[in-house]
Amino acid sequence: MSKKRGLSLEEKRDKMLEVFYDSQSFFQLKDLEKLGPKKGVISQSVKDVIQSLVDDDLVFKDKIGTSVYFWSLPSRAGNQLRQVRARLDTDIAALKKRESELESKLESTKEGREDSDERNAALLELNAMEKKHRELQEEINKYADNDPAVYESMRNATRVAHESANRWTDNIFALQKWISKKFPEARDKLEELYKEVGITEDFDYVE
């Protein structure tokens, strides 16, 4: 007979979040170490699991006198995820605007020439990012159920969207490099073009 598989870190995080969401109360670490085993999380690992949730702003702590208390309310976690999503909306809108303006300005340089591999790859990345954005919106719509598993899924989706935005930035840089190399005679004009479409010297990856 096979041994029962232990919980993964993500599963332990979900279980400990359930402790907070079910009670919507405040706990000391010693209390959580007693409640953890009831959710299948051994007491020895509760401290590390709680710290990982604190690091991700899913659980909050404060010191009152000599005691440290932990808490997590679904409404506050939801507000934080909405703020992350709003920042992503802004970043995606800015990237789409830059992509559209750059393609419009560079139309004359593409006449009579085949599309580059870099541009095709950039368009594929944009489509993937838009798809991930739609998926993130669908996850947020499910958030009203206050399901800890949904919260974790949304956090992962946010990370993927952030990475996709930075990959799209990579493609913009690659497209600029390809144009400069392929059409060196237009290099001086490209600097003016970048300025017109809002690509400045401080254009960089999303933090």
UniProtKB/TrEMBL annotation:
One of its GO terms (cellular component) is nucleus. It comes from Ceratodon purpureus (Fire moss). Residues 85-146 form a coiled coil. PANTHER family: MEIOTIC NUCLEAR DIVISION PROTEIN 1 HOMOLOG (PTHR31398). Keywords: Coiled coil, DNA recombination, Meiosis, Nucleus. GO terms for molecular function: double-stranded DNA binding. It is found in: Nucleus. Residues 16-74 form the Mnd1 HTH domain. Belongs to the MND1 family. This is Meiotic nuclear division protein 1 homolog.
